[in-house]
Design a protein that fits this description.
disordered N terminus; alpha+beta
Amino acid sequence: MGHFELNWVLGVGMSVRGLWAMGRLLLMAGLVGGFHGLAWADDFESLFETSAEGESSAQGASAPANENAAGKASQAAQESAPEVIELEGDERSALPAQRSGRALDEIVVTAQRREQSLIDVPISVSAFSSEKLQDAGIENLSDLSEYAPNFKLVEGGLVPLIYMRGVGSGSNQGFEMSVALFNDGIHLGRPFQTLLAFLDVERVEVLKGPQSILFGKNAIAGAVNITSASPTEELEAQVSGSWFEPYADGELVAHVAGPIGDSFGGRLAVRQRSGDGYVYNLSQERYDAGQDEQAARGTVGWYPSDIAQLELKLEYSERKHAGRTYQVVDRGILNESEDTTVGLDDIRDTNERERTRITSQGLTLSGEFQFGEYTLETVTGLGGYDFVDLFDADSSRIDTVYLLGEEDFSQFSQELRWI
């Protein structure tokens, strides 16, 4: 009946000839199904009779050999049968996931300003846990862009360039980024703030597409949400280091976290990274594009009960660059009579001793309070950075054009959310 009803619905718009042809097919299908049904019934009846005969013969047999065989068969059946565990009350929820198949780890994100499972968020999100960041060697947002599709961040000549699905704000230093950057709920809108230390990160979420409703009008291309790690209930510590030759690129990262008394917790994380450049500067007698970076973050949490918690985070970072990697590939008019090297051979010659330095400070106070089914969240942020950049714009030993850029930026934000 089910097949007939389905075909009838599909055949409403057909011609009379089409209905007649479909009717013949249905009739043939019914006959074939009937024959198979009769054959299946015969097989089932014969199986039942065979089982009954075997049972009666087994009951009538009294030889010791048959009893021994029956005992072995019963023992084998008990060994091969799955183990049955009887649980009472709430213990049924404690069954391991292996009994119902392999379960996937749940990924919790805050893409909609609240903690949710990734599968419940109707947004295109690429989420990265701390384990994934460590395993992949992701040390900054530029490295992250190599793993997140449709997201790209490169350190441009003047300012870092950040794009999402091809949409960005370009290289204007005074523009707010079209891809909004958030660190523990605090909006970081300036391009240079993407250079801050990638320190002790718990997870990173890359949200693609306009996010203006929940993250503000500037997030027209997308948003990057960074969440740093919080204090833990048990004492933990970790130290990791790396060294890469031939550029003497070394890094040391460490953190310690744990409880402080009954209702307080703390966490301290530090990072030191340095490396030599790879483009030799003839006039300055050094390798350009070397870097030196230090960062630290201290966190104190107060957790008086399950319905209230407060966290205070204080961080500082400093990043220095010595020179750039620009090379002259065409002597031009000014350099025509100069004995300069032409070509991408990792050699440059500048009269200016180029340097870049950015220092940043940040203070974040976040709180969460439960009122029945509702939650009040507060996020207070105070921070800023100092930036100095000396750039030899002609990238040659001729004293013609150089750029000195300085910026002193500070910001304050306060946000209240009723969920």
